Amino acid sequence: MSKIDLKEYSFYLWTSKTAPIKYLMELLRDLLTEGNLECSSEGIKIQAVDPSRVVLIHSKLKGEKFEEYHCPETIVLGLNMEDTFKIIKNMENTDTLKLFVKKENPNKIGIETYCKEENTCDTTYLNLMDLPYEKMEIPSQTFESVISLPSNRFQKICRVIFNFSEKIEIECEGNKLKFRGCNDNVRQETIIKPTNNGMKFLKNDNPDEIIQGFYELRHLVLFSKCSNLSNTIQIHIKNNFPLVLRCDIANLGEIKLCLAPQVDDGNL
């Protein structure tokens, strides 16, 4: 990697950890049409509400985890998620990635991928969007139940139930985690108990209390693609409160999905 003059850039990132970035952008593309990246000296933060206003996405990438990161002053970069993913989706895992905004051209973000094996460099400039930006303060919450579950198992459960149901019921009872879905002809229930290599209760304050919620399954199916980012997913659940799913982004940071509960219509 050749030395560059960082004084020319208001934002600059270089990394060889391209796979998690690509999978993260695919996830954001599926959940959001557009969004703001708040870039600061500490890293990159994404907070956005989906168009249906049912889902809140919160993601944080630590600047220190990239091989090179420069952002002396906080700036907000508005991105079209579909266009951004189209640019980086063809990256190979062995490629390197640069994201940058030059001071002389503050309305465009540069996306550069480099293939060392073929000595090929592709650079694309994407127009930044002027999106409404409101800093959201999310108050910390205490959850009675916090569960760690293999992410591929979570993905399989969501996809199976989504074949015949638009909603899913998630319930904690004792040491059991239950997923349910149904339609007029089919009723599916998956019951999981703790094992050394499977589901674990990280927190289970009230094992005698039934904690449950009903949620729109489409968003969980999309978020279950986080299995490409981490081997496990955390489920934070409490009665009459949004469901929170948390997943690591390799060793770069984390992403959380907050999903508002649905009304129980008696069909599950």
TrEMBL record:
<dbReference type="GO" id="GO:0006298">
    <property type="term" value="P:mismatch repair"/>
</dbReference>
<dbReference type="InterPro" id="IPR022648">
    <property type="entry name" value="Pr_cel_nuc_antig_N"/>
</dbReference>
<dbReference type="InterPro" id="IPR000730">
    <property type="entry name" value="Pr_cel_nuc_antig"/>
</dbReference>
<dbReference type="GO" id="GO:0006272">
    <property type="term" value="P:leading strand elongation"/>
</dbReference>
<dbReference type="Pfam" id="PF00705">
    <property type="entry name" value="PCNA_N"/>
</dbReference>
<protein>
    <recommendedName>
        <fullName>Proliferating cell nuclear antigen PCNA N-terminal domain-containing protein</fullName>
    </recommendedName>
</protein>
<dbReference type="GO" id="GO:0003677">
    <property type="term" value="F:DNA binding"/>
</dbReference>
<dbReference type="GO" id="GO:0006275">
    <property type="term" value="P:regulation of DNA replication"/>
</dbReference>
<dbReference type="GO" id="GO:0030337">
    <property type="term" value="F:DNA polymerase processivity factor activity"/>
</dbReference>
<dbReference type="InterPro" id="IPR022649">
    <property type="entry name" value="Pr_cel_nuc_antig_C"/>
</dbReference>
<dbReference type="GO" id="GO:0043626">
    <property type="term" value="C:PCNA complex"/>
</dbReference>
<feature type="domain" description="Proliferating cell nuclear antigen PCNA C-terminal">
    <location>
        <begin position="138"/>
        <end position="261"/>
    </location>
</feature>
<dbReference type="GO" id="GO:0019985">
    <property type="term" value="P:translesion synthesis"/>
</dbReference>
<dbReference type="InterPro" id="IPR046938">
    <property type="entry name" value="DNA_clamp_sf"/>
</dbReference>
<comment type="similarity">
    <text>Belongs to the PCNA family.</text>
</comment>
<dbReference type="Pfam" id="PF02747">
    <property type="entry name" value="PCNA_C"/>
</dbReference>
<feature type="domain" description="Proliferating cell nuclear antigen PCNA N-terminal">
    <location>
        <begin position="19"/>
        <end position="130"/>
    </location>
</feature>
<keyword id="KW-0238">DNA-binding</keyword>
